[in-house]
Amino acid sequence: MVAIRALREGDPEVISEAFTAIGWDKPVRQYEKYLAEQVAGVRDVLVASVDGEFAGYVTVYWVSPYEPFNGIPEISDFNVLPKFRRRGIGNGLMDAAEARVAERSEVVGIGVGLYADYGTAQRMYVRRGYVPDGRGLIYDGKQVPPGEMVRNDDSATLMFTKAL
Fold first, then answer.
1. What is the CATH superfamily name and number for domain 2-163?
2. pLDDT tens per residue, range 15-26
3. Are 93 and 4 in contact (CB under 8 A)?
4. Alpha helices in 84-152 (DSSP H)
């Protein structure tokens, strides 16, 4: 059974340990920061579990640092553990995040990486009705001018929006 709820005390350690176990660098302090931001009303964090076992999470950043969004909330840092993928958990997290945003905004934003590891997410966002914001390649939250070279890493993104 899949359950989705808000991040709470004790979750940062569980989440960090789950990602460390698969070789991902997701330190506990990242989730402690998310918890503090949630308490402050800056970010909401939704956590999915399957039969009580942590499966994934997504965050809603209420004021996106990406300036062109100009107040549009941004869904960010969306991860489902590989062993729980292709079971609808990611879509469940996205449904919950979009429903939460719809309470405050008619539009939601999201960014996606450009290399192959993000291929599933790229396809998912398009299927869910997200469209590119038309500003092209973004690196570290800033538009990349034509002719400028950037590294294709997690900081290189294409930004999307969706009407809710």
1. Gcn5-related N-acetyltransferase (GNAT) (3.40.630.30)
2. 999 999 999 989
3. yes
4. 89-102, 119-127
What values do phi and psi take at 142, rounded to 5? -120, 145
- In this prediction the pTM is 0.92
Tally: H helices and E strands in the chain: 4, 9
pLDDT tens digits, one per residue of 46-100? 999 999 999 999 999 999 989 899 989 999 999 999 999 988 999 999 999 999 9
Report the C-alpha gap between 39 and 41 in whole angstroms: 5
Residue burial 98-109, b: 16+ Cβ < 10 Å; e: rest: bebbeeebeebb
Give the whole-angstrom CA distance, residue 68 versus residue 64: 9
